[in-house]
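Today's session is about reading a structure prediction critically. Students often jump straight to the picture, but the first step is always the sequence itself: look for stretches that repeat, for charged clusters, for runs of hydrophobic residues. Only then move on to the predicted structure, which in these notes is written as discrete structure tokens rather than atom positions. Here is the chain we will use throughout the hour.
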Amino acid sequence: MNSFDERSSATRDAWYICFVLLLTFAFNYLDRSIISILVDPIKREFGINDTTIGLLQGGAFAVFYVVFSLPLSRVADRGNRRNLLLTGVVLWCTATASCGLVHSVPELFLARIMVAIGEAVLMPCAVSMLSDSFLPQQRGRALGIFSMGPYLGGAAAAIGGGTLLHSFRSSSVNVPWFGMLSAWRAVFLVVGVLGFILVPLLLMVREPARFRDDGRRAEQPASVGQLYRELRRKRLAILTVIFGFSFIAMAGQTLQAWVPTLFIRAHAWNVKQAGVRLGLTALVLGPLGAISGGVLADRLGRRGWLNSKVILGGLAALISVFASLVLTLPGALVAMVGVASVYFLFGFTYGLSQASIADLMPNRMRAQTTSLYSLVNNLLAAGLGPLLVGVLNDHVFHDPMKIGESMRIVLPTAFLIAAGLLSWGRGAVRHAVADARSGTVSVET
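Below is the predicted structure for this chain, in token form.
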């Protein structure tokens, strides 16, 4: 049995891995984004402004995520990815629960930093594991399904977090073993503890064998020099994918961080209304977009469109420029049309970014290249996007109620830059993917 047959016969194991990684991604995003529904109670308790909230949602997370992502991704390319991911899950779930037990803003920053360090292992491990579990022509669909995770997690944060916060009603909740806690603290604690259900599921995952796209077993771990030479040789394609999709992620993360607050402030929704309505919208349209993007990219790829993923990503980003303007218009119904459109389009592109990296790079370099993408992604998406809205609110408009105007600046600009980059580099991507499919990559021979 050759390696392609071996991989194709492992259908049940492959789809189990995809399901567990999807669920892990959902909890990853839930733990990361639950703070977005708790903005106002945290501000009241600690007496902080929107800029500090923007740092808590973005900067405190992004900087340490990217610092730890690179060395952890090298471990993922060289060692057991399942065990590394399991360690990260335990760390980030513990840190999320700890967010509810802090006594000061610096302690909350520290807890968010620990969430970031734990979550830094997911994308390098998951993209590498899924790329080895599925054939190249199935990769877009598998990574599209995996990319439903942020929408499931974001919906759980909005619906579950908003409902929990609303159901507690009183300012304090009696939590067994922990005593009286503020309602927002209890939400953090519940969410963090729930994540431990991933541990037994991951223990049943078998570490996938490593394969090249030509069907042979993967090469030995690449040296830093080999990685550098491969990145340099494909630099235009890599830069296109990393920066193009990162600007889309910047807009998506900014939307995730601030859209509940937009509807609470600008449209007088309460926390439960914002959580349930926005969460259900994300839960339906985000996964629909993710599956649609992956299936369409695979279909075009089979017809010879080697750069189908960046072409589709650029088109989705261009349409999102107009959708993001609509979501800031007066009137809750009109704004929801814009939100729904962006949720679908962001989901459409999410799996395309990961699949593009897998298409471009040899097996033993995928986790590290994914980490480079995560580095840029988080500096722009988690670090800069949410912070810019807070800074504009506090220091340009000097009015928290001007959040719509702030988002009207940040979101369309990010989407427009993304569309331009992905269009500019589509030729370089086509040539790099053809090179990778030919099996002539020097580090693999």
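Discussion point for the tutorial: DSSP finds 19 helices and two strands in the chain.
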